[in-house]
Predict the structure of Methyltransferase, UbiE/COQ5 family protein.
Amino acid sequence: MSQSDKFWDSKAEGYAKSPVSDQATYERKLKETQQYLSPEMQILEFGCGTGSTAVQHAPHVKHIDAIDISEQMLSIARSRAEQSCVKNITFSLGTLEDFSAASESQDAVLGLNVIHLIPDRQSVLKEVARILKPGGIFVSSTGCLGNSYLRFIKLLVPLGKRLGLMPDIFIISEAELAVEIKAAGFEIEHQWHHGMDDVDVFIIARKIS
């Protein structure tokens, strides 16, 4: 088990019990995403956490594969799906690369609150493009601290990791993220930000055919 796995396992129960910090924004993200979903779609969510978003989207698609590096998060996610009588989600342990989906097998891919936690974003974005069908949708919500005073949190990350108080956090600006998504083969259809210093960036992008 890696240090990141252990961190998220330790946070799973508290994370599941925490209320959504901005319910209106969360519901806006759900609504905008669901405008792109349809009953025949096969979708994948990486970094699914405790499964709350997957459960919300499940009635709108054929099937969801939801993956995460934390077994404790997945245990809560499976319980949530069962309690909601949702049967079209398969939860799996691992990373997007571990999952190894077939090329052009997914109608949509979701990466929510996870990209800023990944050291090699470009490889992940290329993998998302590989597994999406032409015209497929990539939905992301990302903490972009590059132009905020919060970028200095990077100075605290090594100590926070050693103490088990913080995960890896990688600093990127909203503009840089948009450039990287486009470079991976996408056109951005929606992009907006919110939260403290507008650092939380929501993007819906379509794979160029």
Q: What stands out?
A: The helical segments are 3-17, 23-34, 52-57, 71-83, 96-99, 121-131, 157-162, 174-183. The longest helix spans residues 3-17.
